[in-house]
Structure formats: structure tokens, C-alpha cells
Design goal:
Layout (H helix, E strand, L loop, with lengths): L2 H12 L3 H26 L8 H8 L4 H22 L6 E6 L10 H4 L4 E7 L2 H10 L3 E5 L13 E6 L8 H14 E11 L10 H9 L2 E4 L10 E4 L1 H8 L4 E6 L9 E6 L3
Parallel strand pairs: 1-2, 1-4, 2-3, 4-5
Antiparallel strand pairs: 5-9, 6-7, 8-9
Bound molecules: S-adenosylmethionine (SAM).
The site of S-adenosylmethionine has 20 residues, from loops.
């Protein structure tokens, strides 16, 4: 998005008009993808797709080709990371925190060759209700905007979270990263995506200043957790503040499939 559009977005945000505009953009997106989606459903009659409003809420695009293909490829990408750092001799306990309407998690059992017990959670009750009714082999649960999740400490070998702390405040992100640290076992892995340096080109001058001095830019004035509530963290901020309880195994700038976000592979110390 260029800087002129950013300026318009800020005016809409400040005046409280971003919500109504988002509803209008949703309707436009339904029209935009209508024909392509009809073809998709003819081609994949057994593939269950979520309500469009849930897909828009999570990805801005109720586009079923994107939903299926990006989900499959991202699950394979996560399996490769898991293979690199974890033994797959016994079934892995895997959690997606902030799973949305199942884009990635529905493909995890296949991508991991059936060798997982897979769990998903989200704070959106409609999304969790749809996942529960339509996606088999996975246990879904609803959480609040703030922790906890109702699992005992060290329950998971692998937790991943795609584009979730990118929509949370500083305080709530901190609480969640602490909760994920509690939930992963010693030696287990957290894969988490963030907005970082590659987003500087969409920042306004005051945001760049905040990013470089504090390491954090928040665009609020919208419901926390929704995609129009936007957070961008510098790598230094994440290493020193949010992720300091983990060992950083990998940080790849703008390298996560399809989202173009940074990803971090973190290990809980043994
Ligand atoms: C951009 S979407 C990404 C969805 C999914 N991770 C994916 O990549 O397909 C962000 C998701 O985070 C969820 N979310 C936001 N705040 C949350 C919170 N505090 N706890 C759990 N989920 C949250 C939203 O409901 C939404 O499903």
C-alpha cells in the first residue's frame, strides 16, 4: 500500500470510519471472487470452505484457491521446520494458536504423515464453531483475548502462530508469548510470524521514528485481535523483550510463505 493510501487509512482510523469501510470492502471482495470461487467449488466439491465472512476476517480475501493452496504449502513448510529440529519417532503434540478458519491446520495431519495430535485455538467463537463442525482429526478450543489456554505446562512439542501477535497490543502479546513459553515443553519449538523491517516501506515518518527508537509500531483505534489492528516489531525488540525466554534458532526476514512476514524459530531451553 503506498503512502497516500496509508494517509487515507489513518484519517479513516482516527475518525472511526475504518469499521464501516471494512464492511464495504468485504462486500466488494465477495463480488470480486464470486466467479473464481464457483469454479473452485465445481472442481473440489468435497472440500469444505468456511463462511466467506470468516475468511475475510482472517485474510481479507474469501478466495478458495488461495485458502487451499496456501494452507497446504504452509503446512508442508512447517513440517520441514519440525523435521529439522524435532524427532518424529512418536506422535508430536502440535498446537496452532490463532488458527482462524483452518487454512493451515486442516493440512497439518497430512503434512506430518499422520504423526501428530493436533490442536487449534482462536479467540473468535464463530471461527472455532466452524472448525469444530467441519474439520476432522483436530481438537479445537476457544480462548480469550488474553491467556490462558487450558493445557498443562509443557504439553506441546511444537506450537506455531501465523499473523497473530501482528494484531495485538504490547501488553497482550507479552502475556501470550509467556503463555506459549509455558505450554511448549523444554526443547520444544515455537514458530511465530511477525511484521518487521520489510514493512518500513508502508510506514509514515512518525512510525519509522517509533520503529527505530522503541522497536514497536501499533496502529490501534480498532478492535484488538482484528486484522485492522496492526503491530510491527523490530527484530531487536523481539530478541530483547518478547522472545528473551527462548533460544532463537532462526529469524528469516519477510520469509514466511504467502504472508511475506518475518518468521522466528524459537526453542524453549532444556
Ligand atoms: C490474520 S488471521 C490468521 C489466521 C491463521 N493463523 C492463518 O494464518 O490462516 C489472525 C487470527 O488470529 C486470531 N486472533 C486474534 N487475537 C487472538 C487471540 N488473542 N487469541 C487467539 N487468536 C487470536 C484471529 O481471530 C484470526 O483468526
Amino acid at each position: 500500500m503506498n503512502l497516500r493510501l496509508q494517509r487515507v487509512q489513518r484519517i479513516l482510523r482516527d475518525s472511526g470510519l475504518l469499521g464501516p469501510i471494512e464492511k464495504f470492502r468485504y462486500l466488494l471482495s465477495v463480488v470480486r471472487w464470486y466467479r473464481k470461487n464457483r469454479e473452485f467449488i465445481q472442481k473440489h466439491p468435497d472440500f469444505k470452505v468456511p463462511p466467506k465472512v470468516l475468511a475475510y476476517d482472517a485474510y481479507s480475501a474469501p478466495d478458495w484457491d488461495f485458502y487451499k493452496q496456501s494452507g497446504e504449502e504452509t503446512a508442508v513448510f512447517l513440517a520441514a521446520i519440525s523435521n529439522k529440529y524435532l524427532s518424529h519417532d512418536i506422535p508430536l503434540q502440535v498446537l496452532e494458536w490463532g488458527c482462524g478458519p483452518g487454512r493451515v491446520i486442516r493440512h497439518i495431519p497430512n503434512a506430518f504423515s499422520g504423526n501428530t495430535n493436533t490442536y487449534g485455538s482462536d479467540y473468535n467463537p464463530a471461527t472455532i464453531a466452524w472448525c469444530n463442525d467441519n474439520i476432522g482429526q483436530i481438537k479445537f478450543s476457544l480462548n480469550g483475548l488474553q491467556p490462558p489456554l487450558h493445557f498443562e505446562g509443557g504439553y506441546f512439542d511444537l506450537i506455531y502462530s501465523i499473523s497473530v501477535i501482528t494484531h495485538l497490543s504490547e501488553e497482550v502479546s507479552r502475556l501470550w508469548v509467556d503463555e506459549l513459553l509455558r505450554l511448549v515443553r523444554p526443547g520444544g519449538i515455537l514458530v511465530i510470524t511477525t511484521n518487521g523491517d520489510s514493512r518500513k516501506n508502508v510506514m509514515r515518518p512518525d512510525e519509522i521514528e517509533a520503529y527505530e527508537s522503541i522497536g514497536l509500531v501499533i496502529r490501534g483505534k480498532f478492535e484488538e485481535g482484528k486484522k485492522m489492528y496492526w503491530a510491527c516489531h523490530s527484530p531487536q525488540y523481539l530478541r530483547e523483550k518478547l522472545f528473551s525466554g527462548f533460544e532463537v534458532l532462526e529469524h528469516v526476514n519477510a520469509g514466511f510463505p504467502y504472508t511475506g512476514q518475518d518468521y522466528w524459530v524459537l526453542r524453549k531451553p532444556r
